[in-house]
Recover the amino acids of this structure.
């Protein structure tokens, strides 16, 4: 039985991937590695805890000794690296932590993986490394990297290190770059869960600028299917864009949330735009469709309805994660008119 190490596996996308592997790959076990910072939550893995094929280890990807111990046993054969600081607003307030986790942490993982003879290393990146698009066109895997925020700069740097380890040391590495995710268990600093929470509580919904920034929205389940497909069949050294073709403005997304909840659009508040805010992202996912026969399956309207319902049904989870350090940050951030998208 092979074992996959999923770093950041207690987070939003990571936990969805862990659950999918355990449900669809009976001959595979999962070692979840997560530091359990504010966005990592063992409750996200509640359905996996008693599965004999799942093991959890707490730790930091920057901890070379700890990572070496996990990989040195020879148990792990493949790695999917989802561990990252991912909130753009936080990266503007504190870039250093993003460089440490997203860049240095990735290098630590790569070095340990090389020493351990790991079969395949999948680096989960983001469409934000490409920067901003005009009103037409889409990012392809050949598009130049032009990151706008400290967050996207750190992810672009990590991507370069992954490619370098592949070329220099002959490691089997693959990079994925996905568009904006939404779905259950997403931490409420992100646009959709934050808007759902505020709307349920009849609180204002702050939107940066005119709200006409365009994003390609993909359900997290479609993303985790793509990651599993890339892990199994992606070309070594390849890069795969993952997108759904569901381009929506942030304003339209927020209005969709209000419509599902039956709340008035008068809750919307336009606030000062974020520094360096990319105007539009659009992903050309033709490569992954052609090579791996993958395509997004969740239509946005159905996906957003199911997502809103999940947060309604799991309101206790939603409120429980906004505690301690994050509650203080959330209050300061919200009072300052910050949101994300």
């Amino acid at each position: 039985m092979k074992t996959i190490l999923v770093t950041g596996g207690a987070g939003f996308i990571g936990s969805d991937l862990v659950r999918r592997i355990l449900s669809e790959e009976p001959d595979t076990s999962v070692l979840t590695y997560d530091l359990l910072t504010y966005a990592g939550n063992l409750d996200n893995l509640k359905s996996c805890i008693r599965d004999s094929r799942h093991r959890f280890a707490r730790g930091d990807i920057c901890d070379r000794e700890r990572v070496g111990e996990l990989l040195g046993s020879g148990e792990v054969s493949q790695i999917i690296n989802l561990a990252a600081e991912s909130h753009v607003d936080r990266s503007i307030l504190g870039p250093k932590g993003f460089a440490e986790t997203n860049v240095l942490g990735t290098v630590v993982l790569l070095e340990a993986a090389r020493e351990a003879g790991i079969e395949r290393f999948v680096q989960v990146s983001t469409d934000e490394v490409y920067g901003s698009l005009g009103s037409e066109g889409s990012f392809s895997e050949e598009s130049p990297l032009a990151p706008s925020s400290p967050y996207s700069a750190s992810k672009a740097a990590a991507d370069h290190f992954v490619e370098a380890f592949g070329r220099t040391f002959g490691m089997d590495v693959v990079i994925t770059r996905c568009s904006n995710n939404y779905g259950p268990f997403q931490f409420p600093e992100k646009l959709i869960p934050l808007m759902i929470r505020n709307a349920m509580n009849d609180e204002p919904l702050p939107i940066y600028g005119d709200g006409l920034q365009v994003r390609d929205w993909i359900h997290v389940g479609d993303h985790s299917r793509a990651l599993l497909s890339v892990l199994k069949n992606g070309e070594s050294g390849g890069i795969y864009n993952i997108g759904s073709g569901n381009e929506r403005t942030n304003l339209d997304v927020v209005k969709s949330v209000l419509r599902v909840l039956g709340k008035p659009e008068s809750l919307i508040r336009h606030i000062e735009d974020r520094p360096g805010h990319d105007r539009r992202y659009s992903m050309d996912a033709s490569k992954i469709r052609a090579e791996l026969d993958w395509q997004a399956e969740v239509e946005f309207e159905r996906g957003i309805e199911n997502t809103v319902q999940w947060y309604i049904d799991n309101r206790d989870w939603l409120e429980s994660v906004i505690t301690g350090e994050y509650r203080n940050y959330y209050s300061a951030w919200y009072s300052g008119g910050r949101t994300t998208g």
Q: What stands out?
A: Residues 68 and 112 are 6 Å apart (CA to CA). Residues 95-116 form the longest helix (22 residues).
